[in-house]
């Protein structure tokens, strides 16, 4: 019997779902190297490989068989060939631009463990999709809003969430649509550097975000009385500002966010919140030219920078802080703790804080490979994001469950039924 790759699901799976990988038809205890390859929409190549030894029966099941030293990872890692994918181009991050098409994953099995791959024994292709069948993708151009709404299959109404990414700008849709696969109505909202929105990050007007909140609150497919906010990085502090000043917010989840206003002036009616001060002299640059910017921001607890602290005690919502403890973009854990102190000092409920040792800044949906460093649009050079690949991958899986449970609990009244595994 010729060797073959067995996948479950066989041909197609959702990107945040596990994929079972096995090889059958090998010789007893045969040594092989498995390699995965994936090209993003710019045709940049990501690859991972691992060394294995088949069982006495010639079977190799990644759920039971540990990878041997010498590849991209070792040990029992059933999804290692996906989370360990690394770009061949330095400082390149895997993102999904068109959620309507899947990523195509190539799997290959080679003979032996040499530095050069031996004879090709088997190969397979698998689609990693972002949209579940029946999920509706609706571009939104109402008033000033530039966004995409994802609605789950079925009649609804569904618990509603607005999803914001960070300083990269544009309109990333992949987290919003993956969340919509889990029965949430999710609005991926652009806020700059997209279509006719402002090109730069000089100042933001909360009235724009208020328009998006009202759009969701009045949508027939969105279950009231309030909605949720999910923000990463700069999107996180925008969510804190929205929760603090706007009505109709029930639950706010931040992924490595800040409780101080960062990077741009924030205006709402007659209120102005200045951005937190920075000191570029605190940038540390490694021999390889990668900048560590973790100490660049001033403390929002001292001097005039206190004006940048967002008055989150005004919020009438529940908070969840997801924290990567090896975040090198900024001090996410410090922000979460200070936000918690501020809320409790004003008699508000203590927020949920879930910390992940070994996780960096870009905590994405499950099985996105960790990005250790990439170009920072505001600094114009590659910066370190932090994280250790295996711990970061585990954090992404757990955080995804925590986020969904948090929104289910507070937007639908369902018990959360989850506890952090880390």
TrEMBL record:
<dbReference type="InterPro" id="IPR014940">
    <property type="entry name" value="BAAT_C"/>
</dbReference>
<dbReference type="InterPro" id="IPR016662">
    <property type="entry name" value="Acyl-CoA_thioEstase_long-chain"/>
</dbReference>
<dbReference type="InterPro" id="IPR042490">
    <property type="entry name" value="Thio_Ohase/BAAT_N"/>
</dbReference>
<keyword id="KW-0276">Fatty acid metabolism</keyword>
<dbReference type="InterPro" id="IPR029058">
    <property type="entry name" value="AB_hydrolase_fold"/>
</dbReference>
<dbReference type="GO" id="GO:0006631">
    <property type="term" value="P:fatty acid metabolic process"/>
</dbReference>
<protein>
    <submittedName>
        <fullName>ACOT1 thioesterase</fullName>
    </submittedName>
</protein>
<feature type="active site" description="Charge relay system">
    <location>
        <position position="361"/>
    </location>
</feature>
<dbReference type="InterPro" id="IPR006862">
    <property type="entry name" value="Thio_Ohase/aa_AcTrfase"/>
</dbReference>
<dbReference type="Pfam" id="PF04775">
    <property type="entry name" value="Bile_Hydr_Trans"/>
</dbReference>
<feature type="active site" description="Charge relay system">
    <location>
        <position position="233"/>
    </location>
</feature>
<feature type="domain" description="Acyl-CoA thioester hydrolase/bile acid-CoA amino acid N-acetyltransferase">
    <location>
        <begin position="16"/>
        <end position="142"/>
    </location>
</feature>
<keyword id="KW-0443">Lipid metabolism</keyword>
<dbReference type="GO" id="GO:0006637">
    <property type="term" value="P:acyl-CoA metabolic process"/>
</dbReference>
<comment type="similarity">
    <text>Belongs to the C/M/P thioester hydrolase family.</text>
</comment>
<dbReference type="GO" id="GO:0047617">
    <property type="term" value="F:fatty acyl-CoA hydrolase activity"/>
</dbReference>
<feature type="active site" description="Charge relay system">
    <location>
        <position position="327"/>
    </location>
</feature>
<feature type="domain" description="BAAT/Acyl-CoA thioester hydrolase C-terminal">
    <location>
        <begin position="205"/>
        <end position="412"/>
    </location>
</feature>
<dbReference type="Pfam" id="PF08840">
    <property type="entry name" value="BAAT_C"/>
</dbReference>
